[in-house]
Amino acid sequence: MRAPGRRMRKVVAVGAACGLATIAAADGQGPRPSRVPARAAVNDAPARRGWSAAEAEVWKAIEGFNRAFAANDPTTYFTFIDDAISVLTPSSPYRVEGIADDREEFEFGLLRGYGRVGYFQELQPRIDLFGDVAVVTYYSRGSYGPDDKASTLYLKETDVLAKKSGVWKIVHIHVSSTTAP
Description:
By secondary structure, this protein is of the alpha+beta class. It has five helices and six strands, in the order ααααββαββββ. It has a single domain, classed as Nuclear Transport Factor 2, Chain: A (Roll). The protein has a six-stranded mixed sheet, with helices on both faces.
């Protein structure tokens, strides 16, 4: 069943993300997360943030994904998404599973106008690496909806990425609503 408003996508379930990361890191040594300090602005270069090359590579994927989201560009957006994506958003009581259903939901929101993004900004990103799995968390703010009816929303997001054939792909997104600061 389709639920309206699914386009407000951002923040992956921390429990699912940690579970996925723990499974991927279960090499007998346990997970060794890479901690990235939270920072208010994300426009500075990854090197200025003190990120490793692997963390910068993950952030490049998230940044491209979010830029395509903000541009309302499904073609580019879905180049960052794995075929087996699962998505949880505050606007839907259901989990979206698979790229076909995710794309249908995304494009339906754009067509109807409620999924249109006016602006989008990530705040305080954190990247945790567990081998070929990355968990990225951040706050976001953005405007959503038709120009004459757009609302500013404050959200929390977790994105889980897996490195497949040398490319970081988003395998899970969980977005939660929050209140304005």
